[in-house]
């Protein structure tokens, strides 16, 4: 699976203000910003993202997905590197 394919899958199931992916085709690292994360705990956010993948995790199309999830307000407060 390519980064563009994975991005399209996540974006189709979750309204993202920002979505960045890095990986090797099986192991992925994502930074996801969504208003849907407002008021949710970390585990709820992760479950929401995994729900967008459907069975892709179970069929090993996506072997591993590590993620950082932020609400828009949390993202606005993140330090940025120049």
Protein described:
- The protein is of the alpha+beta class and 82 residues long.
- It has a domain at 27-82: Macrophage Migration Inhibitory Factor (2-Layer Sandwich).
- The chain has helices at residues 3-13, 42-53, 72-76, and strands at residues 18-23, 27-33, 64-70.
- Strands 1-2-3 form a 3-stranded mixed beta sheet.
- Helix 1 (3-13) packs across helix 2 (42-53).
- The longest helix is centred in the middle third of the chain and has 12 residues, at 42-53.
- The protein is globular.
- The model has no long low-confidence stretch (mean pLDDT 91).
- Belongs to the BolA/IbaG family.
- It holds the Pfam family BolA.
- This is BolA/IbaG family iron-sulfur metabolism protein.
- InterPro entries: BolA, BolA-like_sf, BolA/IbaG_stress_morph_reg.
Features:
alpha+beta; Macrophage Migration Inhibitory Factor; three-stranded mixed sheet; 3 helices; globular
Radius of gyration: 12 Å
Q: What percentage of the residues does DSSP assign to strands (E)?
A: 15-25%
Annotation field: number of helices: 3
Number of strands: 3
For the largest beta-sheet, the strand count, sense and barrel status come to:
3 strands, mixed
Give the strand order of the largest sheet, numbering strands 1, 2, ... along the chain: 1-2-3
Helix share of residues? 25-40%
Sketch the topology as an H/E string, one letter per element: HEEHEH
């Amino acid at each position: 699976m390519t980064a563009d394919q994975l991005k399209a899958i996540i974006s189709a199931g979750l309204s993202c203000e920002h979505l960045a992916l890095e990986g090797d085709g099986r192991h992925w690292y994502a930074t996801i910003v969504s208003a849907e994360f407002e008021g949710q705990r970390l585990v709820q956010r992760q479950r929401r993202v995994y729900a967008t993948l459907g069975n892709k995790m179970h069929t090993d199309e996506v072997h591993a997905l590590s993620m950082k999830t932020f609400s828009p307000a949390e993202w606005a407060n993140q330090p940025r590197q120049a």
